[in-house]
Amino acid sequence: CVSILGSTQPDKLFSYFQQSLSGSCNDGLLQRFQLLIYPDDVKEWNLVDKAPNKEAQQEVARIMRNLTTMNFCDYGALQEGDETPYFCFNDEAQETFFTWLTELEREKLNSEEEPILLEHFAKYRKLMPSLALIFHLINVASGISRGPITVDCVERSAAWCEYQDGHARRIYTSSISAEYQAARNLVRKIQKGELHDNFDNRDVYRKHWALLKTKEEVESACNLLVEHGWLREGTISEGRKTKACYLINPAVKKEAKHE
Predict the structure, then answer these.
(1) Bridge partner residues of 212 (DSSP)
(2) Percentage of residues in the chain with pLDDT exceeding 70?
(3) Which CB contacts under 8 angstroms, 24+ apart, belong to 90-93?
(4) CA-CA distance, 100 to 79, in Å (whole number)?
């Protein structure tokens, strides 16, 4: 486990992000930076000449010293043989965690978000209890509590995940155009078998899928998929008339079947 504290330039991040999004370099690294913050630009700068809070600095230093020297078993941690000591949730905290986890699995991870964003949210399975443990250890080292992890630490951790949610969306979607998002959504529908060869624009926009509710949105998405070889333009006969349609690259169907 490696912890990194720092910042980066948006241009550097977006360059790497585009590679991850295209699949050419989606190694899962970016999704492991869970506490990502995308701050707003300072619109009005003000000079702040203020002394540091020495009491807070001293308290943080004291907590860190305590954490490096304390025997956690003396404060309610469990240990099996020579294994690393660990803390559990108390009953109320465990129930709160189960409720949160159920919502994560059934709603957030089952939504029609960008796949790379869902990969990021999937890491919350560990982020949430990890933060709860950190908050609990701070309380233990501060002399506030001992024993199992309490519900207030779990609720605080859940609130942090909710806060991170907005920043993650901002970071991941900032490099994705509406046209690209619509094309990705259309690909997912194709891979689920909801569209077949010889479909036309009307077959798509009458379904009222996200970002594909108008003729213009569908045309834009299909043009992008044609450009990248996912679709091919064609025509079909309807009596004496012909109608423009799209043919699906067989490789797309094979990929969906393999998954």
Answers:
(1) 209
(2) 88
(3) 90/147, 90/148, 90/149, 90/150, 90/151, 92/150, 92/151, 93/132, 93/148, 93/149, 93/150, 93/151, 93/153, 93/154
(4) 27
Provide the mean pLDDT of the chain: 87
pLDDT band per the 50, 70, 90 thresholds, residue 78? very high
Phi and psi at residue 20, to the nearest 5°: -65, -40
Q: How many whole angstroms separate alpha carbon 246 and alpha carbon 233?
A: 5
The reply to whether the predicted model has a pTM over 0.85 is: no
Of the chain, the percentage scoring pLDDT greater than 90 comes to: 51
Say what the alpha-carbon torsion angle 158, 164, 165, 166 is, to the nearest 10 degrees.
130
Which parts of the chain are beta strand (E)?
Answer: 231-238, 241-248
pLDDT of 170: 82
Q: How far apart are CA 15 and CA 4, in angstroms?
A: 20
If you ran DSSP here, which 8-state letter would residue 107 be given? Answer: T
Interhelix angle 115-122/124-141, rounded to 10 degrees, is: 30
Rounded Cα–Cα distance for residues 10 and 2 (Å): 22
Structure tokens at 93: 């905290």
Tokens 């720092």 belong to residue: 6
213 three-state secondary structure: coil
pLDDT of residue 76: 94
- H helix runs in 2-53, sequence order: 10-22
* 248/190 Cα distance (integer angstroms): 8
